[in-house]
């Protein structure tokens, strides 16, 4: 494994800065505590960044795209070709994440980390580990080397975006079949039944969900992933984009860059990142809770509260990008508001 990941030592949160910013928030011209959750967000940001006036702009969005061999078992409502087609859509600025990324003036990077197609496009970051994972109903999804390679690619892309100036990182994914891999991973880590976690993904009907559940249950019995070994889990039932996002999150945490986590698949990557390095989740916010049933459990494993509940179930990083203006608003409060003293407003 590359140096950064092997020797990773994520910094501790700056609790003192958190206290200092809390006192400052109390001096702003609002009734004490009236900013509600925004107050918590700003204090968290202060602890993460160690800054009295944390910045989250410009954010960076990195979308990792890859295919899944498990789609051979008929676990998605859409064909796997959609992964490649959507990657091209991202490059043509026509996808939902393009719209939301533009709205928040984000840096944008789309990474082919394992699409099962050869794509010639100069704007695509080509880092294909392999043309899709292997079908984990029949064999391990990846080799250990492939897992490490995908983690490193994620780490490298995030590092690059941070060097470009990104102050907050949003990870997104595109990979037909990836709610199957995510449901399997969250079931293994949480110990909860597949039945309680599995959902429609792109839009399976009840019979399809039942089939998906059975495939996942049998695959877990066959592959026997080790619940507290994130590399073993990725190797046996993971995905290239999930490993890539986990690696990117580790880079962000290591650089004290706040991470805004998106939906079920992204949160699964966050849980994996946190198993690799226990302090990773200190640097995470969860942007929204998606309609996919397993997302609630994944968020609980991180010990977080989602910012939004909009019933979205897309992925791509969309829910996080939509939540970003709320995080940004929190930073503006302390940057731009007057204090009781500076404005000459009577305090109680
Ligand atoms: C047109 C289209 C755009 C998407 N954008 C994200 N996803 C989402 O759906 C997929 C996961 O669902 P499942 O496990 O059921 O295949 C992922 O690619 C995820 O990013 C999409 C899916 C489709 C069809
Ligand atoms: O929660 C998500 O990110 C999600 C849910 C369903 C399908 N694709 C993504």
Give a topology summary:
Blueprint: H1 3-6, H2 15-26, H3 37-49, E1 59-66, H4 81-91, H5 96-103, E2 107-114, E3 125-126, H6 144-164, E4 168-174, H7 178-190, H8 194-197, H9 206-223, H10 230-237, H11 240-254, E5 259-261, H12 264-276, E6 284-288, H13 294-302, E7 306-308, H14 318-336, H15 340-343
Parallel strand pairs: 1-2, 1-4, 2-3, 4-5, 5-6, 6-7
Helix pairs in contact: 2-3, 3-14, 6-10, 6-11, 7-9, 7-12, 7-13, 11-12, 12-13
Bound molecules: alpha-ribazole-5'-phosphate and nicotinic acid.
Protein name: Nicotinate-nucleotide--dimethylbenzimidazole phosphoribosyltransferase
Enzyme class: transferase
EC number: 2.4.2.21
How do the strands line up in the largest sheet?
Answer: 3-2-1-4-5-6-7
What is the radius of gyration computed over CA atoms, rounded to a whole number of angstroms? 20 Å
Euclidean distance between termini CA atoms: 57 Å
What's the number of helices?
A: 15
The major pleated sheet works out as: 7 strands, parallel
Strand tally, please? 7
Would you mind describing this structure in some detail?
There is one protein chain. The protein is an alpha/beta fold. It folds into two domains: 12-54 and 333-343, 5,6-Dimethylbenzimidazole Phosphoribosyltransferase, Chain: A, domain 1, CATH 1.10.1610; 59-327, Nicotinate-nucleotide-dimethylbenzimidazole phosphoribosyltransferase (CobT), large domain (Rossmann fold). The chain contains 15 helices and seven strands. It has helices at 3-6, 15-26, 37-49, 81-91, 96-103, 144-164, 178-190, 194-197, 206-223, 230-237, 240-254, 264-276, 294-302, 318-336, 340-343, and strands at residues 59-66, 107-114, 125-126, 168-174, 259-261, 284-288, 306-308. It has a seven-stranded parallel β-sheet with strand order 3-2-1-4-5-6-7, with helices on both faces. Helix 12 (264-276) links the parallel strand 5 (259-261) and strand 6. Helix 6 (144-164) packs across helix 10 (230-237), helix 7 packs across helix 12 and helix 7 (178-190) packs across helix 13. The longest helix is centred in the middle third of the chain and has 21 residues, at 144-164. The model has no long low-confidence stretch (mean pLDDT 97). The protein binds alpha-ribazole-5'-phosphate and nicotinic acid. Alpha-ribazole-5'-phosphate binds next to helix 4, strand 4 and helix 7. It catalyses: 5,6-dimethylbenzimidazole + nicotinate beta-D-ribonucleotide = alpha-ribazole 5'-phosphate + nicotinate + H(+). This is Nicotinate-nucleotide--dimethylbenzimidazole phosphoribosyltransferase. It is an enzyme of class 2 (transferase).
